[in-house]
Design brief:
363 residues, alpha+beta, six-stranded antiparallel β-sheet, 7 helices, 16 strands, 22% helix, globular
């Protein structure tokens, strides 16, 4: 550990990090800061700003596209120590961004509440990571996105300015799916749902640290590998998207040991999240998850398949869920978005991350 005149410790790490996808890796030697609260996170960003250092923000590493992995000359900020909560307003809970979603849901159940939407699969993403990836997951609430239940987000700009955002702020909606490029999310006020409709008690002012209820171990080990392909479009185009997906995977079925198809819809509840789906209003998603035995020799084939898939989806007029795919994401400065959405994104980025020092994407 290096000694620094700061309110946090800086650790020199010598290990290779992977993410949920298990394909991409970070550099083997890097500096890491593990803030335990918002003040320490802000101090860490001020330090990075003074050093003109680029920042990589990592929660649980639940992404598949390498967006949480440190690169050369980057300072890694690990948010998993930021897992505190407070019941401050009836019907809500305010939590720090490093809080694991499943652990939070388990904590809420002790008080008679639950999260309206959480990720499916396993106890992977943090609250901040789920927002950064868009807040979509096939669960029992298939007609909802996480964005419909977030009331307020506090984030830090690249120069450590604290920004409190409500749903009316233009930046708020663009944080969903931005993969950390539009600010370092440090906490969020979430709506919660009573398990019993007759529940009247609310644990006002109860606060603390969210306990760990679930294992963090990635369920996919060795060569067994999960990848998914998802496209979004208008609700009335669901069958067209389904046919497109099924035909594509029939053509490439020899690569996969098993595939599963999932359909879901997202109802318009007043907040449009352009980096998830550019079109306003309700929209549908068609997802195919594929299990494969991945070898080094197959990796180029898989990435070529992803490239072909994206091209096929976009030529058909649909939008792929790039935040959840294996290919390294672009910075949104290329042709992956329509001009109006791209221009709005870049304008917001200019205000909070003008030198592109937060979670640089692309190769």
């Amino acid at each position: 550990m290096n000694s620094q005149q700061t309110s946090f410790n800086i650790y020199e790490r010598n290990r290779v990090l992977r993410d949920y996808g298990q394909i991409h890796t970070g550099i083997s030697t890097y500096l890491e800061i593990c803030p335990q609260n918002i003040d320490e996170a802000q101090a860490a960003l001020k330090y990075a700003h003074q050093k003109n250092a680029s920042i990589r923000i990592r929660g649980a590493g639940h992404s598949m596209n390498g967006s949480s992995l440190p690169r050369k000359n980057e300072l890694l900020i690990n948010t998993q120590g930021m897992d505190h909560f407070c019941f401050s307003e009836p019907g809500t809970i305010t939590v720090e961004a490093g809080t694991n979603l499943w652990d939070l849901d388990a904590l809420l159940k002790r008080y008679g509440y639950e999260l309206p939407v959480k990720n499916g699969g396993w106890s992977g993403p943090t609250v901040g990571g789920f927002i950064a990836a868009g807040g979509i997951s096939p669960t029992k609430h298939k007609d909802d996105g996480f964005w419909n239940y977030v009331q307020e987000i506090t984030c830090l700009s690249a120069n450590a300015e604290q920004i409190v955002l409500t749903r009316e702020d233009p930046l708020f909606a663009y944080l969903f799916g931005a993969s950390g490029q539009l600010g370092f999310i440090v906490n969020a006020k979430l709506e919660i749902t009573p398990l019993n409709a007759n529940l009247v008690s609310y644990p006002i002012d109860v606060s603390g640290q969210v306990p760990q209820f679930y294992s963090r171990e990635n369920p996919f080990k060795g060569s067994q590998f999960l990848t998914w392909f998802c496209c979004f479009g208008a609700v009335e185009q669901t069958q067209e998207m389904r046919s497109l997906q099924e035909n594509f995977f029939t053509e490439h079925q020899s690569l996969f040991d098993k595939t599963e198809l999932e359909l879901y819809q997202f109802k318009d509840k007043g907040l449009h999240v352009p980096l998830v789906n550019e079109s306003q209003g309700s929209f549908a998603g068609v997802e195919i998850r594929g299990m494969m035995s991945l070898t080094e020799a197959l990796k180029p084939t898989l990435f070529k398949l992803l490239e072909t898939y994206t091209k096929t989806i976009r030529e058909a007029g649909f939008q792929n869920y790039s935040q959840a795919e294996l290919a390294k994401m672009s910075s949104y400065s290329n042709g992956s978005l329509s001009k109006p959405v791209k221009d709005a994104f870049l304008e917001l980025k200019k205000a909070v991350n003008p030198k592109d020092r937060l979670n640089i994407l692309g190769t």
